[in-house]
Amino acid sequence: MEYKGSSAYDQHRFFEQYIARRYREESPNEKIKKPVLFELLDDVTDYEVLDLGCGDAFLGLELLKRHCRSYTGVDGSKNMCERASQHLKDRRGRIVHSTMEEFDFPPFTYDLVVSQLALHYIEDFSMLAKKIYKTLKVNGQFVFSVQHPLLTASFESLTASGKRNNWIVDNYFHSGKRVEPWIGEHVVKYHRTMEEYFAILKQSGFIIHDIREATPQKDHFKDIEEYERRMRIPLFLLFSCRKPS
Ligand SMILES: C[S@@+](CC[C@H](N)C(=O)[O-])C[C@H]1O[C@@H](n2cnc3c(N)ncnc32)[C@H](O)[C@@H]1O
Fold first, then answer.
1. What domains can be seen in the chain, in order of their start residue?
2. pLDDT tens across 15-70, in order?
3. Beta-strand relationship, 176-182 and 185-191
4. So which residues are the signal peptide here (predicted)?
5. Which atom of ligand 1 is nearest to the CA of 6?
6. 224 C-alpha to center of ligand 1: Å?
7. For residue range 215-224, what is the model confidence (pLDDT) as tens digits?
8. Alpha carbons 243 and 30: distance in angstroms, whole number
């Protein structure tokens, strides 16, 4: 069975294994992506923040600690929303159980829209980018990470353990649906080239300020072999853009 959007995260076993992986020692999310995300983000003091595909809203906790005025997380998974609501209990955060596609984006509301590793689940990124543009205040920031297109191009080189020892990059310019064998399930993702991400952001009206591939930093790793493995191929692609005044 193929799982689209959030649906895999509502399978109990998948959800628990995903969370365990997400926070494991040497997790690339923590060691590689997170430092770059925080380099890209503005000072969020007094910001109204929207997090698309917020997962368990751990980012919300961090942004609230950094004094954002409000945090709204949107996620299509019931499991994720429950976990996120527990994390935000008694804090200035709110979680909306909705797909990003169905979420009712209020115009000119947010200073920051952020999304971590969720936009490659979206088939029509162009439509969503336009909604994000509208929901931002003037000069508002849009920062997001996706699975790097070198990885989503082809999943042929995945081994039974889910680990790749070599990477096949194939059909790169054939963007569209891919099915990734991941955590024992078949998860639907949408491959887009770097050029497409860039063009969609530009067409939606954004000024693109930065694009990052999250080069691993040796001093963030305890395990040198893990660091060397992560130096072989990029895992993440991040963009920072702004709605111009
Ligand atoms: C890889 S997880 C990342 C979660 C979180 N952003 C993080 O970095 O920890 C992807 C998240 O996107 C959510 N998601 C996937 N497709 C979605 C959609 N169409 N609308 C809303 N959420 C979606 C999933 O439910 C899941 O929580």
1. 2-242 (3.40.50.150)
2. 999 999 999 888 999 899 999 999 999 999 999 999 999 999 999 999 999 999 99
3. antiparallel
4. none
5. 25
6. 30
7. 999 999 999 9
8. 28
Which residues contact residue 245 at a Cβ distance below 8 angstroms, ignoring those fewer than 6 apart?
138, 139
149 lines ligand 1 (CB under 6 A): no
Cβ of 6 closer than 6 Å to ligand 1, yes or no, is yes
Model confidence at 81, in pLDDT bands (50, 70, 90)?
Answer: very high
Give the atom of ligand 1 at the shortest distance from the alpha carbon of 102: 20
Distance 53 CA to ligand 1 centre (A): 4
Confirm if 100 and 52 have CB atoms less than 8 A apart: yes
% of the chain beyond a pLDDT of 70? 99
Q: Is the CB of 135 under 6 A from ligand 1?
A: no
